[in-house]
Amino acid sequence: MNLTTTAPANCQECPHLHNSLMGTCQMSELSLVSVGKVYQVYQKGQVIFRKGSRPNGLYCIREGKVKISKVTGDGKEQIIRLAKEGDVLGYRALMVNDPYSTTAVALSDCVVCQVPRSDFFSIIEQNAQFSHSLMRLLAKALGEAEERIVHTAYKPVRERLAEALLLLHHIYQPSTPGPFSIPVSREDLAALMGTAKETASRLLSEFRDEGMVRTQGSRITLLDLDKIGKTSALYD
């Protein structure tokens, strides 16, 4: 179970504030949110929200990485989005008061702040910049979803692996420069690509043999970003 408690710090002190939707809030609005919000600590693999449940507020990732996925008609998981520190979750369902259409799961140990529904809608009504930023998020999410549908249907799986690796690189890239490895299971990699685990493993071995990546257990290090980028764009 996740641990829920009052947040130890106010929103103004969040290290990801200026890279987040909440960065468009006024100081008075952030003070309001700081009083009402809670933070929830999730261990790797725990569900943050589940498809079919009702939204109670806006989720803001303070620490950690999250996957948002659906289960297809044949029972396979399809990851439709990855989220990192500063990202917000669940805003579409919250705005239209629909049950969640996806499930969000912690890819690592996470701290996630939840802004109450009432505070979220109060800010929308009072803050035009917040509302405009939220609309841009919705439009971007729609565009990315459409692009993913096209790529899954028409893009060869080798190119989809390269694309998935670039996305993972963006999500896991640390703030300080230097080499780093990406912790990702073969199951999650396959779900991100929209293919079978065996296919993802075979193609990853090909990328390793071609000098594009190095693998050690479930960790992947990208060695040739330029070549991976060119591979991902072969059919664009």
UniProtKB/TrEMBL annotation:
Keywords: DNA-binding, Transcription, Transcription regulation. GO terms for cellular component: cytosol. Residues 42-141 form the Cyclic nucleotide-binding domain. This is Crp/Fnr family transcriptional regulator. InterPro entries: cNMP-bd_dom (IPR000595), cNMP-bd_dom_sf (IPR018490), Env_Response_Regulators (IPR050397), HTH_CRP (IPR012318), RmlC-like_jellyroll (IPR014710), WH-like_DNA-bd_sf (IPR036388), WH_DNA-bd_sf (IPR036390). The keyword Transcription applies. The keyword Aminoacyl-tRNA synthetase does not apply. Residues 155-226 form the HTH crp-type domain. PANTHER family: CRP FAMILY TRANSCRIPTIONAL REGULATORY PROTEIN (PTHR24567), HTH-TYPE TRANSCRIPTIONAL REGULATOR ARCR (PTHR24567:SF74). Pfam families: cNMP_binding (PF00027), HTH_Crp_2 (PF13545). One of its GO terms (molecular function) is DNA binding.
